[in-house]
Design brief:
The structure holds two protein chains of two kinds. Chain A is an all-alpha fold. Chain A has helices at about 5-25, 40-170, 180-189. In chain A, helix 2 crosses helix 3. The radius of gyration of chain A is 71 Å and the shape is rod-shaped.
Chain lengths: ~190, ~250
């Protein structure tokens, strides 16, 4: 606390001095931004630097950045297009797969149906064939029986005539002519 | 001397050049114009040199500034305005980089001189007027006659519109200039408090913490202002260019 006032007293005049020294130094020129004597130089150098800057940006920098951005947008668009194309392809593949699946299912049904029909038809023909052969065998057998019966019947007539002739001979003792006996047998029959 | 907040705007001749009685010396201001252009141009050129499909950080900055200005111009002036894109982009980058460079200690702020901002504003308004008449002929004057105004009011409205048009270069240039000037003076004054107060010993050093904190905060604010003023300058340029392209309101 003893020291600080001392410093203050020492420093205060120095500060004042500094201010008074400053005064005349910039009092001579006006406020720098309004000092018209610097204007031609500032305008000239602004025109040169800004002009070159403008040309440099317009010729070199902006086409380059524009190209980079365009390139990127093009690439993104291309990637999106490709992605959607692949998506479409995948959808088409799924659709084709399902189509094939339904086709295969339908074909399987058709094949099954055909197999069933074919089996049925062949069974039917086989049955018909067997029936036909059985019918034929039956007809043959009946015809055979009929012929045997006819033959037997014929035999029976002869046997009856012989028997009748033999009986008449035994009983009556005479011989009858065959015609009479045959007629008599026929009449009995 | 060291605390003089105006000293930082002083122009000193580096290479004296005089043509026809006019002083065209290469000054510290000229040097910083060159530095601004070189820094901005080199940054934009070098960061995009790899033309990466996937941009790096620095390339992203260049691309973002490109798209930022492009969308600003497209929103304000439509797709017809895109022919002015190199112009608006150059203006934006020049003002932005000049403002940002000026924030480095001991660096000169190009945009803290009214003549520089006024020259840029005149360039904008000159472009608007020349292109407006070139594109629309006499129809460009429709700019001063808003549609749907009752006949009695037209003279008054035209007067107001003319005054507002004429004040555009002034407001455009003064806004940028005053922001830069005031910001740098404020910074210097607060920084000056720190050195003056710390000369008063322990109490002074304790008291200088507040202006030091203010200096830090204002430095942050000035970075925002540097960007914001470049943005405002570019946006207003876009809107004025829109008037040249579509003069009917």
């Amino acid at each position: 606390m003893f020291v600080t006032p001392g410093y203050a007293q020492e420093e205060a005049p120095a500060l004042d001095e500094a201010h008074t020294v400053e005064g005349p130094e910039h009092g001579g020129g006006s406020f720098p931004p309004f000092d018209a004597s610097t204007f031609p130089s500032q305008i000239l150098w602004l025109a040169i630097t800004f002009g070159l800057f403008y040309l440099f940006l317009k010729r070199a920098v902006l086409p380059r950045i524009g190209g980079i951005l365009e390139n990127r947008h093009g690439r993104i668009q291309q990637d999106l297009d490709q992605a959607s194309r692949l998506q479409e392809e995948a959808d088409a593949a799924v659709a084709a797969y399902e189509q094939e699946l339904t086709d295969a299912r339908a074909k399987a049904n058709v094949i099954g149906q055909e197999a069933r029909d074919g089996a049925k038809a062949s069974a039917e023909t086989a049955r018909k064939k067997v029936e036909a052969s059985l019918d034929k065998k039956l007809g043959d057998a009946e015809a055979h029986i009929a012929s045997i019966k006819a033959a037997a019947m014929k035999e029976v007539g002869t046997i009856a005539e012989d028997t009748a002739g033999a009986i008449v001979q035994e009983l009556v003792g005479g011989k009858l002519d065959k015609g009479t006996i045959a007629a008599a047998v026929k009449a009995v029959r | 001397m060291a605390n003089d907040p105006i000293h930082q705007f002083q122009i000193s001749k580096w290479i004296p050049i005089e043509i026809g009685g006019l002083d065209f010396s290469f000054t510290n201001a000229s040097a910083f114009m060159v530095a601004t252009v070189a820094a901005a141009g080199a940054f934009l050129y070098l960061t995009t040199s790899s033309r990466g499909l996937v941009p790096g950080r620095l390339q992203s900055i260049s691309e973002m500034s490109y798209e930022f200005v492009a969308s600003m111009l497209r929103d304000a002036a439509g797709s017809h305005g895109m022919k002015f894109f190199p112009f608006v982009f150059s203006l934006f980058m020049f003002v932005l980089v000049a403002n940002l460079l000026g924030l480095f200690p001991y660096f000169f702020t190009v945009t803290s001189h009214i003549i520089v901002t006024f020259a840029l504003a005149l360039l904008v308004i000159g472009t608007v007027v020349v292109y407006g008449f070139y594109k629309n002929g006499i129809g460009f004057l429709k700019l001063f006659v808003p549609s749907g105004v009752p006949g009695v009011l037209i003279p008054l409205v035209v007067l107001i519109e003319v005054i507002s048009f004429l004040s555009r270069p002034i407001s455009l240039s003064v806004r940028l200039f005053a922001n830069m000037l005031a910001g740098h003076i404020t910074l210097k004054v607060f920084a000056g408090f720190v050195t003056s107060l710390s000369a008063f010993g322990a109490v002074g050093i304790a008291g200088s913490i507040l202006p030091l904190a203010m200096t830090v905060a204002i430095t942050g604010l000035e970075f925002l202002v540097a960007f914001l003023q470049a943005y405002v300058f570019a946006v207003l340029t876009c809107m004025y260019l829109n008037d040249a392209i579509h003069p009917g309101h």
